## 1
Amino acid sequence: MTGTLYGLGVGPGDPELLTLKAARLLASVPVVAFPEPMSGDSLARRIAKPHFRPGIEEIPLRMSCDPAQRDDDGYDQGASIVAGHLEAGRDVAVLCEGDPFFYGSFAYLFARLGGRFPVSVVPGVASVMACSAALDHPLTARDDALVVIPAPRPEADIERLLEAAEAAAIMKIGRHLPKVVGVLNRLGLADCARYIERAAQPGQRILAIGEVERAPYFSMILVHKRGKAWM
């Protein structure tokens, strides 16, 4: 018998935003794995740590320090380590910030291990939902179409996608802030946009678009063309 691979969404930052199912599994599985940058702490581990059972074996999976890039070598090595535990019959919970299948790092481990071992994915609170709640800004209403746009996309793509929907969540702002703000201004949407960084984390900040000088990777701009979804 092999172990089961659990992909656990741990939410955007607040340990209380874990689901009851994720917390229950963390209190019972023998092994937990989590992505960890080459330097610094693992955000996923910091979120989930209050729910770890005593004596749980922790496996840091070293990945590229650039969260915008997929690190194939790191995921190959991580998959090999996790596979060793699963082959020995130990269940492994792999932590993923936000939701495992919404731009989640777990998807790359799933691609490598999903055909070999039993897998169970536990959804988590995605950053889009956390940002909407923190901003007191409903994402959509009625029959609105919502588009999720990664800021690293080309400027022309961002403009085209914004034009096609009533509401948008622009993610992973970082160094792409000037490009995104330029598109919003050109489309006349700057007054309908709301900026937040590190939602549900200790360093959460909400700023007007014109006040943002530099944006971290964990930042987002929500846009609704009616200004308020319920209007």
Note: The mean pLDDT is 94.
## 2
Amino acid sequence: MMRASGGEKVSRFPIMTVSKRVTIGIPTIDRSKLAMRAVQSALAQTYRDIEAIVSDDASTDDTLARVREIQDSRLVVFEQKQRLGLVGNFDFCLRHASGEFFLLLGDDDVLLPTAIERLIGPFTNQTGLVPPDSIGAVWCPCRIADADSTQFWNTEAGPDCESAASMLAALFAGNRGPRLSSILLRTQDAIAVGGYQTKYGDLCDIGNWGRAALLRDAVVCIREPLVQYTNHYGSTTSQSAVEKWQQWARVVHADLLVSARASGDRKVEQLLKSAKKNFISGITLTILIQTIGKPGWIRNALLQSLRTPSAMFTPYMFRRLLKDGRKVLTLWNSSKWPHRTEG
């Protein structure tokens, strides 16, 4: 294990990368138990050429001490003396990656053992779907679970191969299920679009990977859940105001359009432009679902209907509620959900 301090200035220029190595970035703060689980899942990958970067954002618990107990030469631990915040910590991990490929792993999520091996395959031409140089991202659906690994459902897969714009439009329509921890990118592509940026707020992940994917022709889906994504009451998503997420979504969408316009393909631009309303409605529904079990969540949902009827009363919203209503009931009926407070 390597140790480092995060006090130095973060380089804004591309760094030398190691070919075919995958860097798994794990930004964390005050999540000792869950962070250990995430780190161990990264180091247990069947694909051995990995680097696991843990950036501890000035935790006040024993996260840093516990991670430093792990003896593995592939583990690099950074201690931030002053807090970078969610976006800054994400970006720190990316800027310090030495691998040619990068996956950002939430500190409360879990990689299944073959996740990296399966996700790297299309980039190394093991699948033969499309030329590796044309692939902007490889992703997989996820198992949705609570922090105790009680599984709720699996998110939706997509076709084996499609354009980035098609995948994003389908995601906004509720028909694709990538999550933060299930997307593998080229490190240099993720840096080329500006890394993780504060203007996107907590949607900085899609602001990064969406624009990085649009740099190339294709997105590949491994149609098997290889990541366990954690929904829990103490998550950032469950504690945020809907209005903030809606504004972040508008900024992300505007920049995705800029990226699409740069491709010179008017159909790509038009596809993303027409998906905006779905994106805003989807973000609204996602945040409301994440708050299920929180005191006053029903009242909050009703108030949101009055505040932003254009996002709530849409054909998309009704389709999603019909399609995913069972998920709402699953969370509502889960006896653990209202009491989940551990970060």
Note: The chain has 13 helices and 13 strands.
## 3
Amino acid sequence: MKKILFVCHGNICRSPMAEFVTKKKLEERKIKALVESAATSREEIGNGVHYGTRAILDRLDIDYSAKRARQITRQDYEEFDYIVAMDRYNVTNLYRMLGGDPKHKITKLLDWANIDRDVADPWYTGDFEKTYEDIEVGCTALLDKIFGI
């Protein structure tokens, strides 16, 4: 079973959005995979999903109620096949926190769609719709390349 971990700064906006959008896509196609999300920071540990992300997930009829922000660990690096960051900043932090990337697991989400830019943080932009559009494109490309869907 493939294991995917999405990562952003606080684990309340982008990475949980990617986690739950991906889970729904996999469930619809009856594909089993472990999909989770985590933060590079400790700022939001234990907090639920941001209201802007909740609005998107509610519209998509996706349950996120049990999700609480957590920080990535070195054990996650060993457990997950793919560690997918939302932006360059988090890639840099992942390298620092995990001691590099000797198994070449760390990627940026939009790289999967051959788009050379970051998924903007809606915490700062306020544009959760644009973030969702980017996540939809990135997650679709990622699943296509991993599972051929």
Note: The radius of gyration is 14 Å.
